[in-house]
User: What shape does this take?
Amino acid sequence: MIDVLLYIAIFLGTVAGMEAVAWVTHKYIMHGWLWSLHKSHHSPYEGGFELNDLFGLFFSVLSIGLMLAGLHVWMPFFFVGLGLVGYGAIYLFMHDILVHHRFGFRVVPRGGYLQRMYQAHRLHHAVADKDGAVSFGFLIAPSIAVLKEQLRMNRARGAKVDEQSVETSHDWTTS
Ligand SMILES: [Zn+2]
Ligand SMILES: [Zn+2]
Assistant: This one.
């Protein structure tokens, strides 16, 4: 019984912890030394796969590796791997399907948490550059007012902020 509770805790802890990992990865690696891969995601979407999907592929391979290590070496690894799968599924829904309307789905958040996260990530895309972007998380983000203020400050420092994206960040009908 203790084992089951421990495994559930490891799974849930990994799902939550992955938001922090994703935030750090997005802010310092994707908008850092691997911008060459992430840049594709800040360019107009042309359908199909983009170079940026390599990050998803990396975490998929990592999760499979962890689950195999769990089955063959030490069971807790399995639930860390499963936590990565859980976070990946949430990320896929929130980021790819909800915000970017990939795979032909159009889920329409008309209020509450989902709409706020939708707007927050739209504001992330108001800057098509490596520097000056805001809102690097996918499940947790500052309020829309704070993000717009951060964008104003970044613009004053010379960041290329697309005004139209800021204006239409509340509009869930455009993609
Ligand atoms: Zn980005
Ligand atoms: Zn995005």
